[in-house]
Design brief:
Blueprint: H1 4-21, E1 40-42, E2 47-54, H2 56-61, E3 65-69, E4 80-82, H3 86-95, E5 121-126, E6 134-135, H4 136-139, E7 140-142, E8 158-159, H5 174-177, E9 179-182, E10 191-193, H6 198-203, E11 210-212, E12 223-230
Parallel strand pairs: 3-4, 9-10
Antiparallel strand pairs: 1-2, 2-4, 2-12, 3-9, 5-6, 5-12, 7-11, 8-10
Amino acid sequence: MRSTGSRLALTVIIATALASCGGGSGAGGAAKGSSRGVVMVSPAARELSFSAVFHRRNAEEGTWHLIVERDGSMASKAFFTTDVSPGKLYESLRAIGASDGNNVGAENFDDEDIATGGDAIDFLFDWKGLGEPMRLEDFIAERVPDLPSSGGARGIEMRFGGNMTGEDAASPPCHASGCLACLYTCSAGVTSSSKANHALLKKEGGMHRYRVSPKVDIPDGTRVRVIVRKRP
């Protein structure tokens, strides 16, 4: 007969295995592919994926924050929240061969021409019933404010900013904010767009350009699979 300690150990092993293999579910149904809290990494394909939940109100109103860890201080403002930490995304991007820029910090965050450095990264989103993954550029609609200072559409170009080396290595800003991906050049987000920055946002009176496209039919609470690829 097994001891209580042995039975408990076996229970923990089984529970851990189930947590690693089972898919999560949300208002939009189960995500295809990766499980909750797990990053699936394929170095050969230069690709990783993880699960997240969509928040339609934030996405329609416009926000700086694309993907935020659910316990981060910016989670209530995000398009998507996830169980994956910024540190885990950073490690996973390095594992698929991506190089981080680490060129944005508190000292230059407000500069007129600051832009996230590092390797270019593609984001795609997949959810039940979609058919095939949707590129971020198709998921997002850019609304250019009708202001002389705006200067037309900027587009989106996500890059691996990093922000986890140097003086911030022990406790980078993303540890508190939870920011995995930002739609403006950011000193905290592990990845962020190089096409727009805080100086532009201030010129535009805090009106966020990037919102979910009205053509995208994705209900609030849908669990999605986020696919992240390093560009060649």
